[in-house]
Amino acid sequence: MKILCLCKRRPMGRDILEKPYGRFYHLPRIIAQKGHAVTMALLSYVPEDPVEVERDGMLWTSDSVVTGGPRTYLKRLRDLICREKPDWIAGFSDTYYGMLAEWLGRKNNTRSVIDAYDNYEGYIPWCRPLHYYWRKALSGASLVTVAGPPLERYVRRFREKGDIAIVPMAVDPVGFIPLDREKCRRELGLPLNKKLIGYCGSLQRNRGV
Fold it and tell me: What's phi and psi for 18, nearest 5 deg?
C-alpha cells in the first residue's frame, strides 16, 4: 500500500525529521518496515527551507507555513497525491491534519485515517466551530485510531458508524533502557510488593482522568 501521512514537524516541540519521536514517527516507521510505501508530509511553524529527502525507509517532505504560507503546503499535498496516488491519507498530531486528511481523502476518492490520540477539544473547549468540523471529520474518515477505551467511547459519540481502533501510547523505544525493578524501588524508597501506577500530565477532568 501507499500511505501519505500529514503531520506537523514539531509535535510536543520535538523535530521528528531530525530526531525520531513518539507515535507520529514510530507508527509510520513500523508500517514502512512491513513493506508499505510511506510518505511523511510535514508542516513547520518556523522559517525553514523546503525539504524532500529519503530517510528510514520513508520519503520525507517539509514545508514552512511561515516561509511559504499554507498554500505551499497544500500544493505539496496535491503534487504528492498526483504523483504517489496513495491508498490511504493519514492525519497525525492535531485536529487540522485529521480534518485535512479526511477532506483530501473524500476529494480524491481515497481512504483516510485520523489518529485522534488525544481529546483535542479539551485544550480549547470554547472553539465550537473547530469542534464541529473536527467531529464531522471523525464521522467521515474511513478509520479512526485512539489511544485508549475512554477516548474510544468519547469519539464513538460522533462516529456512529465506521471502525475505531485502539492504538495505545507506549514508551518511546529510542533511549529507553529497562532497569532492575527492585533496585529502582529501593533507591526511590518505594514499596517493593505493591502495584504502582505512574501518570505524567495534569489531572484534569476534561482529560478523562
Answer: -95, -30
